[in-house]
């Protein structure tokens, strides 16, 4: 309530009072045939010539009220203009001030009152609506936790969230906000991570899980070790990224900035020259009013602020206006297969025995021993299965030498073990009678990844792992096409057969298989040479060169990685594939709003100019149209804050629990 | 020149409606004794200020921004 009062009396008191005075003035002049319109003084203003709007040659009571209206509405504008002038800024306030004061000097009290009144009311509306376009960011800032429960000296204490010390244990109870970034050390619970990832469904947390400041517990009880506080939390990083993104100037914006720097002074000069040539003071003043650059200078920032803010609320971080512009032109998307199209958690599916002297368990044992020191994602399913079967490796792993794109060479108890594809066997001169290659081929035909195991120059068997296709991968590809992407391309180090099995299932347009990291880069460059604007989605180290070369580098599941949040052109906080088409769609919508806004602003100015020289556009009409155009531009940008169809965002009420809670206690 | 007490703070402001607000606030805050530099971001409505915490407080900065006609709150991060 208090805030509402402040708002009414702060922003709206001036236009309200001014408007009432205008009404009063008209009432006095017209009611009872102007009987009440007493003469106050003789004419003291300058003769305006042909365009004079003042009927009589005396200053009446009605004029007095009209003048008062202009003073009430114009006082703040003139004060702002003076302050801006002191700061060497020739702004819109100055144009309006000169026009209004000029109108008073020539006795056009109605025009002066109308111009200042409209400007004041327009300004109040602009301030309110512009704040709305920034609402997405404000919500993010509001998500920041204010208090934390820590255990100190064996007691629970409630302290401000900013005072939690690194390495302290904080307690997260049901319904409370997580106050810090940290790791769960005990307990279980469900956390609503909508504020960070834009995902509506709460995430189960167990010992060892990562939690983020600003997310909300929806059940359970967690003890969390603080690993990031205050400015060092994912939420703070997101807020900073969004702010920087909103401030980053798009190319178009830089042009508009340069343009508006000389535009306003140029309008003043134009008005002066036009006034001197025509000898028509009213024309000059009208030119001043309609030359206000309002709609043009804010047309792009409002669109960018709204677009980037909306994206952030949906767990999509876009680096800035320039990247929005580029994203809107994306015609090809390259995705890494593993972890994007597939779950990225391969399971061991087959063990083929090729050495009759051994058994299948032996093959698994050798494979596991060789992979023990490997960092490769394909090592994990082998090791997990071996451990489950009781043949897991013991002691210290031997040295592992990765051979990119081919496999690994490992030293196990002085014996050389190879795990990889046929080219690896060739490189190390391991003979194969064809059975290994054949077995590998058969497995690959089923979309599995075969790995030939050889010990000391003898092939002993083939193991195969397969990755599950992610449920929403086909949907993502379809939606990318809907968003206007011509080509979705799969880049993978896997064999063509595996890649094709996945590609067919997901609807991928083009497959580049058996790629080394540098080949991925070449594939991206090749697409660019074909004239594509390409976005590359990746997560791993081996995608880094391709990500950097692509026009837009997209990081998936970035919430857990500070580096990804800082560096990716587009960071998708959650791990939801459908965020990618959504990001591209939103970029397209934002850019079209930017273009519409510039068009609206330019057309308005051109029409008004034409209207002045053709006659018919007065100062007050000019101001009305001008203010209307500014509001239209803002309203147009605000459309971006609404979610488009198929958006992945959760319902709003889900994340305003905090405010609701506060209102109850107030 | 000692920078030992230089503090950087970010104010988040409300009611930025035109880019000319920027220069106004930069002037108004920049004139204060103890303020080393000030940068106003129009789009995100942020005011970044480096100042000497021994000579001027964050509250003084908020007051200066208020004098220029805008409400601002110091941010926690």
Explain what the structure shows.
The complex is a heterodimer of chains A (666) and B (77). Chain A has 666 residues and is of the alpha+beta class. Chain A has five domains: 3-131, no CATH class; 145-230, Calcium-transporting ATPase, cytoplasmic transduction domain A (Distorted Sandwich); 240-308 and 584-641; 322-343 and 469-578, Rossmann fold (3-Layer(aba) Sandwich), CATH 3.40.50; 348-465, Calcium-transporting ATPase, cytoplasmic domain N (3-Layer(aba) Sandwich). Helices cover 51% and strands 18% of the residues of chain A. In chain A, strands 3, 4, 5, 6, 7, 8 and 9 form a seven-stranded antiparallel β-sheet that branches. In chain A, β20 (534-538), α21 (544-549) and β21 form a beta-alpha-beta unit. In chain A, α11 packs antiparallel against α23 and α12 (321-327) packs across α23 (579-614). The longest helix of chain A is centred in the last third of the chain and has 36 residues, at 579-614. The radius of gyration of chain A is 34 Å and the shape is elongated. The N and C termini of chain A lie close together (10 Å). By secondary structure, chain B is an alpha+beta fold. Chain B has a single domain (6-74), classed as 2-Layer Sandwich (Alpha-Beta Plaits). Helices cover 27% and strands 35% of the residues of chain B. Chain B has two helices and four strands. A four-stranded antiparallel β-sheet of chain B has the order 2-3-1-4, with helices on one face. In chain B, β2 (35-41) and β3 form a beta hairpin. The longest helix of chain B has 11 residues, at 20-30. The termini of chain B are far apart. Classes of the chains: A alpha+beta (666), B alpha+beta (77). Chain A binds chain B through residues 11, 80, 83-84, 86-89, 91-93, 123, 126-127, 130-131, 134, 137, 141, 144, 162, 230-231, 233, 236, 239-240, 242-244, 246-247, 257, 260, 294, 297-298, 301, 304-305, and chain B through 12, 14-20, 23-24, 26-28, 41-46, 68-69, 75-77. Chain A: Belongs to the cation transport ATPase (P-type) (TC 3.A.3) family. Type IB subfamily. Chain A: Its main location: membrane.
